[in-house]
């Protein structure tokens, strides 16, 4: 099916670029059919065609080829977004009986990526293949892709889609926007997200366009849930991008970056936005900047896209007309019903025949355009008897630049209430609430609100495409008194944002630092890490009268002993002089951070030291997961130069679970206040250490 399309493009436009990873050699349509056919043949020879192969890969030429080859080989794909937790991954692999897992290697050679003319299959452009021991699981006949939904209730199920269905949706997108839009499409949504795969990648290839798929870090998405929008904006301009698919949060960040910098993107001809409700005010701001925004609507069960606005501009609130292969109508209770090509079912269960009840409320106007008003199951009924769709109120709040995320609740209360996440360290949420309330009728205005930490897939409160997981958020914040660890994350959100905004931290996460900067970081890391065990022992002595905490500190001491020597080894493998570092003095900012920790233990409540533990371990996880591989790729350094970051990061993921359970048992307000204050102070002191590291221009190893 896909092979015939590729051959047709190769015959018509052989020299046109099909796949452009930016950081490696592009692949033309002339070469694409042969590469896909060769890879498909090898896949068929080495794998059971009835059992899925799982992909957990960054964007790039190799993963893009593998997607097409698996489609051609008729081997089902299990898509695993990079933000899935280990338990989510293990559940998905076992649930669908995956036979193999391809995942990105953290230490891929920059040189091999840049020079390889044909990314090899095993390993695939830096990917590692792991054969799995799962037994076979019944799948609906014709399953080509399995994608796990967010699972608003109970355990999420893997939705099974056929190749015919996915390509019908992709062709429907091409028909809706016109094949002439097939320019250079940039992949920004995280790898493994169905919307990007079908409406971005497959649609681009069907139309004969160029799929631009750099690693996420290059596009400002080292952390896809805290993007560097200035870097994203620069990439869109430099890579001559003509189309994008965004979630509302990405659109808001891109618009803010354009407004702040004055940059415009005249080359863009299509910016599709979906995944969650988009505030009309945001769309107006985007269009005022010249962005050709079209709002869309879709569901996993429908292959990701149901409708899309047309180029003429639809009225506010419309998500456009259904694609040509879809029929939509409204039930008597206002629920949207859909028929046409639909999913095959879920793992182990075929779908019952008949239309799909979407769970979304809306109406269809006299021009056939679909309007979404909210979720049927999320309706708030106030004690005054007013029905309120929370998405409607949330859109008013998300239109305020100071608010990054909002969840409105209040069923049975006199008036709605909200959980709000600040967009910036200096956001004035009270002013933003007042401004948003001024746009709403009296019965829908927020009466009370609370500042909280970010909703993300890693804490289980956000889906991959940006939808709130309301049950999980309610469990954390509304159903009972929040756990202390949850409160601690919220109380340090602004300090964390200030830390992440430091230039050296952003460059490290994106992998754009040079070797000398990396060595400078390791030197200061050694100067503070060598004090970790002495600080732990000092805290242990001061808390000897509290057996529960003393035992935890004993465990930390045993775990942390010798980590300073890891850093000296990394320095040697990175080409530095470990003995010179051992003989050197710490930078003033590093000394200030360490001295403050000793002072808090000796002169205040010694339990405050756990605030420092919280900061260092949570930061090291981010640096290990996103920074280490990005820096390694750019600098071409061996994996032995990153043992502290990678090993410490893996340990600290376990430590954070241990830490959360430990501090959640603390009930004394004085203890909680001491830890919170120390954590807030430590984000500033640790940030000052990073800010003092000299920066240099990054280079790519040659």
Kindly describe this structure.
This protein is globular. Residues 106-120, 150-154 and 698-702 have low confidence and may be disordered. Helix 15 packs parallel to helix 25 (669-691) and helix 23 packs antiparallel against helix 24 (643-664). The longest helix has 27 residues, at 609-635. The chain is α/β, with parallel strands linked by helices. A 9-stranded mixed sheet has the order 2-1-10-9-11-12-13-14-15, with helices on both faces. It has an 8-stranded mixed sheet with strand order 6-5-3-4-7-8-18-19, with helices on both faces. 53% of the residues are buried. Strand 22 (380-381) and strand 23 form a beta hairpin. The protein has 25 helices and 26 strands. It is 45% helix and 15% strand. The two termini are 40 Å apart. It folds into 3 domains: 2-373, Rossmann fold; 379-480, ANL, C-terminal domain (GMP Synthetase, Chain A, domain 3); 493-691, Up-down Bundle (Heme Oxygenase, Chain A), CATH 1.20.910.
Q: How do you describe this structure in short?
A:
With 702 residues, the chain is of the alpha/beta class. The protein folds into 3 domains: 2-373, Rossmann fold, CATH 3.40.50; 379-480, ANL, C-terminal domain (GMP Synthetase, Chain A, domain 3); 493-691, Heme oxygenase-like (Heme Oxygenase, Chain A). The chain is 45% helix and 15% strand.
Main sheet, how many strands, which sense, barrel?
A: 9 strands, mixed
Structural class: alpha/beta
CATH fold group of the largest domain? Rossmann fold
CATH class of the largest domain: Alpha Beta
Q: State the end-to-end distance.
A: 40 Å
The whole-angstrom Rg is: 26 Å
Beta content: 15-25%
Tell me, rounded to a whole number, the average pLDDT: 88
* Number of separate helices: 25
CATH homology group of the largest domain: ANL, N-terminal domain
Give the CA-based shape. globular
Could you say what the CATH architecture of the largest domain is? Answer: 3-Layer(aba) Sandwich
> How much helical structure, as a percent, in the residues?
40-55%
Walk across the major sheet and give the strand order.
2-1-10-9-11-12-13-14-15
How many strand elements? Answer: 26
Spans where pLDDT lies below 50 across 5 or more residues? 106-120, 150-154, 698-702
